[in-house]
Amino acid sequence: MSVGIPEDARRVLAAHWSGLALLEHASIASFSRFSLELMAVGAPAVLVEAAHRAALDEIEHARIAFRLASRYEGRAVGPGALPLEGTLALNATLPGLAASTAKEGCIGETVGAAEASALLGRATDADVRAALSVVARDEASHAELAWQTVRWALDSGKAEVRVAVNQAFAEDPGIVGDVEDPPEVTLHASILADHGMWPQSELVRVRRRALDEVVRPALAALLA
């Protein structure tokens, strides 16, 4: 139990870290699928190895996040069964893999790393800072893996790969939409920031800045 945090703020933090933990838990399966997709298209062993390391990173992220969720919830919180129906279809073609990696990795992981770094910069709770430092470091590594994978796919020289990558980056990434925060988030914004949670309006600014200052310049260099 976290002492000194108002009850409604503690509930918000418990829900926040529980949600993050479940996302990290699902990412274990995502990277396992990614490793199979890399093998299906004949990717170099170094990329396959990195994908497996990333899956192990996500196990640690989930463990850390569930630990924090349990702290704020005041009881043990952990994952249940992971529904996999309809989620195991593989991108077994190079254009398909390049497109999904561009969206989920080059955009998603790059923005995720920027978000974790920003949250770390304001957090004051020691356990939260330790968690965010691990996540920020690993998400940056996962983003690097994604950019390397797309670079390798483009180096194949196949026109359809370049078309697929361009189309993937042209689509709305769906990560900067404005979401209205509940009143308790606005009321306890300072306390929540100490514990690794920001209002959505602030996160949207971080995500947009990451897209403008990191993703788009990296894309331009990639396609040059």
List keywords for this structure.
224 residues; mainly alpha; single chain; Ferritin
Q: Could you describe the 3D structure shown?
A:
Helices cover 75% and strands 0% of the residues. The N and C termini lie far apart (53 Å). It is built from eight helices and no strands. With 224 residues, the protein is mostly helical. The chain has a single domain, classed as Ferritin, core subunit, four-helix bundle (Ferritin). Helix 1 (7-40) packs antiparallel against helix 2 and helix 3 packs parallel to helix 5.
CATH class descriptor: Mainly Alpha
Q: Determine the fraction of residues in helical runs and give it as a percent range.
A: over 70%
- What is the total domain count? 1
Count of helices? Answer: 8
Can you give me a brief rundown of this structure?
The protein is mainly α. It has helices at 7-40, 45-73, 94-122, 126-154, 159-170, 183-187, 189-194, 200-223.
Write the layout of secondary structure elements.
Blueprint: H1 7-40, H2 45-73, H3 94-122, H4 126-154, H5 159-170, H6 183-187, H7 189-194, H8 200-223
Helix pairs in contact: 1-2, 2-4, 3-4, 3-5, 3-8
